[in-house]
Amino acid sequence: MQLPDDLRDAVESELKIQSARQLAKLTAELSQRYREDPEDGRTFIRSIADVEAYAAYRMPATFGAVAAVLSRVKDVLPDWEPQTLLDVGAGPGTVMWAAVSLFPSLSSINLLEREPVMISLGRRLAQHADAPAIQNADWIQVDVVEREALEPHDLVTAAYVFGELDSSNRQAFIEKLWQATGGILIIVEPGTVQGFARIREARKQLIALGATIAAPCPHELECPISGSDWCHFAQRIARTRLHRQVKGGELAYEDEKFSYVAAARFPVQKIPGRILRTPQVRKGHIIFEVCGPEGIETRIISRKQKDLFRRAKELKWGSSFPEE
Ligand SMILES: C[S@@+](CC[C@H](N)C(=O)[O-])C[C@H]1O[C@@H](n2cnc3c(N)ncnc32)[C@H](O)[C@@H]1O
After folding, report:
1. Residue 239: CB within 6 Å of ligand 1?
2. Is residue 163 part of a domain?
3. Residue 181: CB within 6 Å of ligand 1?
4. What is the distance in A from the centroid of ligand 1 to the CA of 90?
5. What residues make up the domain containing 50?
C-alpha cells in the first residue's frame, strides 16, 4: 500500500524544513515515548518538531493500518455509504485521509484533537487534498475526556488514541464514542499485547452495549484469544522518500502491526471466519489458522477443491475465510 499522491505531496512539502538527521533524532525519541506506553493520559507530543516527526515517521504506517481496517469493513458492508465522519484524537488527520479514500461518500468531517500543534499541521496538510471533504473538514480543539457528549455521526473512529488516555477513563470514553455512532465505530490500536488487550476490553463492552461486530470477528461470542497470544494483523506500507531518509535508507517498505474492532449499529452479514496468520502454502494444499464461531481452528484447503483452492491462493493474513 502507498500513501495517496496528494497526501504524500502534502507530507513532503509541509515537512521539508527539517533535515533528515534532525527528524531521525526526533522520531527515535518519539518512538521511545510510545514504546513506554504509560496509559496515564500524558501527551507524547511536546512540540511542533514532535508533530512533524510524527507525521514523517508514524503517519504513513497509521494510514496503512486504518485503510486496511476500513477495507475489511467495506468487504462486509459493500453498499454502506457513510456521509459523516467523527475522528477522535485525530492527530494530523490520518484517519480522515484514509476514510475518504475508501468511502468517497463522506461529505462532512469533524476532527477532535487536544494538541493545537497537531491541528495546525493537520490543517496545512488538508489544504493539499484533492477531496473537498478533507479541505473543508472542521478541526475542533478539545480534550475528549472532558467533553460530556459527542455529536452523532455515521462513522466514528479512534485510532492509536487509547494508549494516550488514562486507563481509568477508557470505559466512559468508549460509551461516549458508541453513543455518537450512527453506523460504525472503529477503534484501532498498535498490534501489541497491550494494544490488543485494550481492543479486547472495548469489544466486550461494545457487545454488552448492543453492538454487532462487523470486523475482524465473525461472531459476538467471547474472544477465544487470551494469555500470551494476541489478535493482530499487518499492513505493508511503501516508505516515502522522507521516511527512507529518516530510516537511513534501509528497506523500501515497513510492516505495521495493528489490532482493531469495528462495531456496527445494524446487522452485518457474518463471514465464516477470519484468517489469523499468514497462510502456509504446501504442495497440494494451503493451511489456515481461522477464528470462527467454534473458536480457533486449523482449516486446510486442498488442490482437489478446485474453485475454492483458486480463491484460497489469493487469501492473506486478515482476509475472511471463504464460504465452501
Ligand atoms: C498517536 S496519535 C494518533 C493520531 C491519529 N489518530 C493517527 O492514527 O495517526 C494520538 C492523538 O490523540 C490525541 N489525544 C490524546 N488524548 C486526547 C484527548 N484526551 N483529547 C483529544 N485528543 C487526544 C493526541 O494529541 C494525538 O494527536
Report:
1. no
2. yes
3. no
4. 6
5. 5-264
